[in-house]
């Protein structure tokens, strides 16, 4: 995939500057950009290790060397930004292999989340899902390859540990 950076153009001064240089400041391509209400930060999504994380970048300083000006707000699951309310709270949706989308509030610094909707609680209470794990192996060129290990629903630790037990296994790899 093509690497994506972020540039900002000031309509008054005509100045264009780079906030995030692709493949230099950050290893992941930003998408779904949105300004904070006060215009001090730019929010974006990035596919980091097979998760869609929400991130923010200081609109004045930019990413800086090694992405030090980027704050990764979410790390587990896949997230979408739906808006900002109040002065420091974001409305997001979150989902994972084990949970369909629900709405959450997220503090603007990523320090705290609170689930707002529970649309799927009843359905999930009566649904068997397979346990999901993350594994990493080494590729032919020595690079780590991250994969998802998805076990069958209801499969126990004892069954998994048994050398005679066979079970179907799905491994989703990327990179």
Order of H and E elements: EEEEEEEEEEHEEHE
The percent range for helix content is: under 10%
Tell the overall outline.
flat
Mean pLDDT: 88
Q: Which structural category fits the helices and strands?
A: mainly beta
What name goes with the CATH superfamily of the largest domain? TolB, C-terminal domain
Bin the strand percentage: over 45%
Specify the biggest β-sheet: 4 strands, antiparallel
The appropriate CATH architecture of the largest domain is 6 Propeller
Poorly predicted segments = none
Radius of gyration: 20 Å
CATH class wording of the largest domain: Mainly Beta
How many helical elements? 2
N- to C-terminal distance = 10 Å
As for the number of domains, it is 2
- What is the spatial order of strands in the main beta sheet? 3-4-5-6
**What's the number of extended β-strand segments?**
13
List the helices and strands and how they pair.
Elements: E1 6-9, E2 16-20, E3 30-35, E4 41-48, E5 51-58, E6 70-72, E7 78-85, E8 89-96, E9 99-107, E10 113-115, H1 121-125, E11 130-138, E12 144-153, H2 157-161, E13 170-173
Antiparallel strand pairs: 1-2, 3-4, 4-5, 5-6, 7-8, 8-9, 9-10, 11-12, 12-13
InterPro entries: 6-blade_b-propeller_TolB-like
Protein name: Dipeptidylpeptidase IV N-terminal domain-containing protein
Give a quick rundown of the structure.
InterPro entries: 6-blade_b-propeller_TolB-like. The termini are close together.
Structure description:
The protein is mainly beta and 175 residues long. It folds into two domains: 6-123, Neuraminidase (6 Propeller); 128-173, no CATH class. The chain contains two helices and 13 strands, in the order ββββββββββαββαβ. It has helices at 121-125, 157-161, and strands spanning 6-9, 16-20, 30-35, 41-48, 51-58, 70-72, 78-85, 89-96, 99-107, 113-115, 130-138, 144-153, 170-173. The strands form four sheets. The chain has a four-stranded antiparallel β-sheet, with no helix packed on it. Strands 7-8-9-10 form a four-stranded antiparallel β-sheet, with no helix packed on it. A hairpin with a 5-residue loop joins β3 and β4 (41-48). The radius of gyration is 20 Å and the shape is flat. The mean pLDDT is 88.
